[in-house]
Amino acid sequence: MRDPVGVEALGDICITGGGPLGGTISVQSSKNAALPMMAASCLHKGTSVLRDCPRIADVDSMIRILRRMGADVRWEGKDLYLDCSILENMVIPGTYTERMRSSVILLSVMLARKGRGSLGYPGGCVIGKRPIDMHLAALEKLGVQIRESPEVIEAECGRLKGTGICFPKRSVGATQQGILAAVLADGETVLENCAREPEICWLCRYLQSMGARIAGEGSDCIRIQGVSQLEAGDFRVPPDRIVAGTYICAAAISRGCITLERFPDGELDAFLQVYRKMGGQYEGKSGKLLANGNGVRFSPGRIVTETYPGFPTDLQAPLMAVLTTIDGVSEITEQIFENRFQVVRQMNKMGADIRVEDHTAVIYGGRPLRGSRVQAQELRGGAALILMALAAEGETWLEGDSFIQRGYEHICEDLSSVGGMIKKTQEY
Ligand code: EPZ
User: Fold this and answer.
1) Nearest CA to 25 among 421, 423, 400, 409?
2) Mapping DSSP to helix (H, G, I), strand (E, B) and coil, where does residue 245 land?
3) Spatial separation of the C-alpha atoms in residues 42 and 69, rounded to whole Å
4) Closest atom of ligand 1 to CA, residue 336
5) CA dist., res. 333 & res. 335, Å (int)
6) Which helix (H) or strand (E) holds 291?
7) How far is the CA of 170 from the centre of ligand 1 (A)?
8) For residues 99 and 92, is the Cβ–Cβ distance under 8 A?
């Protein structure tokens, strides 16, 4: 047993490499579905409920912002009650928006409710600059006046007016911004070159359940007829497809077998296609999927990330972890974000041999991995390091658990429940 005093200095999480994982995990609800649904709840002047909402840091950050705007937000078990009857404060400073970039979609909500809003810049992060030019251009097309200063974006409008908007490139956030602005606008809005991610469909289904008139979600053209008001929402947040994919990678990297309950059927087809092509076995039916890496001799892969329904950029790092344990040369090309290979340096500290050439990471897999002290710098890279540590010889100490907690509700407990040797330092 280590000296508890010294432990914090080593990191937040200690993972000891071991054998194949085995057991069942129930997949948490989706961060990237819950956040826009929380924003959408503000469009109803009353109380809406998001059931089985994930208790993760990004949801906490969004709750903080909504409370600052005047909403009364409270948990009842796993259900989140959002009373948005009174929203008075339409100013969100940078201290809030830097922590939670997706708060930018609240701009449309503030404009729909009050005709004005002021927002600190979302700021970039290690994976990319995260610009919001397409968000702002869409709002201007709907009749919004935007004023940008070095610290804040100020926006105001009379009534939002329906119009045609064609996004220069596919953006999940900008599509959500357009939808949230259009549902209470005057007249019809046609959004073209929309993102087709499942989270767009879930946002639209939630809004439709509140009385919004939306058609075409999941395609690249979404038509919205503005309505005068929305009713209260009461909706179950769907399972998280990226967390599900992360756990399939855990089965693969440990050569184990994990059954996932609450599996998001039909939302991970491109990922599963790659997994099967590498030799991974899986069988799934009606909300359950068994991922079997037991005894599989995986073959290297060549992956290119794309917008949905292509291979998801958010699973690029977890899959890279798996590829470091597979003999041969694999490649991952990242097409969505300009700087999403930060985790490579940490992976190489554990004995991997990954070389980044422009937007492609070349993985020379099969080298023995050894426990090390590593630093998570963003959410998915952090999760990938946990997976690698499960397959490494000895102990790995990971710092930066706060990044992982932004989107993973209980990854340490989940992986421990199927045999992973993972301890948080506060447990020492
Ligand atoms: C969402 O981010 C997700 N976040 C991201 O998940 C995910 O990686 C991303 O979509 C892509 O699937 C949430 O849903 C909260 P984008 P978002 O707008 O909406 C550029 C995670 O780990 N762009 O689709 O910010 C942008 O820089 C996170 O859960 C502009 O140029 O992503 C990027 O290169 C990470 N101008 C590309 O488009 C804009 O106005 C796609 O970004 C907006 C985006």
Assistant:
1) 409
2) helix
3) 10
4) 34
5) 6
6) strand 288-292
7) 9
8) no
- Give yes or no for a contact between 86 and 70, defined as CB atoms under 8 angstroms apart: yes
Name 266's Cβ contacts closer than 8 Å, sequence gap at least 6.
none
Measured CA to CA, the distance from residue 378 to residue 16 in angstroms comes to: 21
pTM: 0.97
C-alpha 101 to ligand 1 mean position (Å): 9
- Residues serving a catalytic function are 125
Confidence grade of residue 6 (pLDDT, cut at 50, 70, 90): low
Burial category of 252 from C-beta neighbours within 10 Å (exposed 0-12, middle 13-18, buried 19 and up): buried
User: Edge-to-edge strand order for the sheet containing 360-365?
Assistant: 302-304, 328-333, 360-365, 354-357
Q: Beta-strand (E) ranges in 77-187? A: 79-83, 91-92, 116-120, 145-148, 152-156, 164-166
Residue with tokens 């939808």: 179
* Omega before residue 309 within 30° of 0, cis: yes
Q: How far apart are CA 203 and CA 286, in angstroms?
A: 22
Cβ(329)–Cβ(364) under 8 Å?
yes
- In the block, tokens 């046609």 appear at 190
Q: At residue 5, does pLDDT exceed 60?
A: no
Q: How many helices (H) and strands (E) does the chain have?
A: 15, 24
In this predicted structure, the answer to whether residue 381 has a pLDDT above a threshold of 80 is: yes
| Residue in 108, 121, 122, 191 with CA at minimum distance from that of residue 157 | 108
List b or e across 49-85, with b for residues whose CB sees 16 or more CB atoms inside 10 angstroms.
bbebbbebbbbebbbbbbeebbbebeeeebebbbbbe
Measured distance CA(134)–CA(150) in Å, rounded:
18
Query: Does residue 7 carry a pLDDT above 70?
Result: no
- The structure tokens listed for 37 are 């649904």
3-state secondary structure of 402: helix
* Residue whose CA is at the smallest distance from ligand 1 atom 14: 32
Ligand 1 interacting residues, C-beta cut-off 6 A: 31-32, 35, 102, 128, 130-135, 171-174, 195, 197, 199, 313-314, 336-337, 379-380, 407
- Please give the C-alpha separations between residue 388 and each of 130, 162, 307, 369, in angstroms, as whole numbers: 27, 49, 26, 8
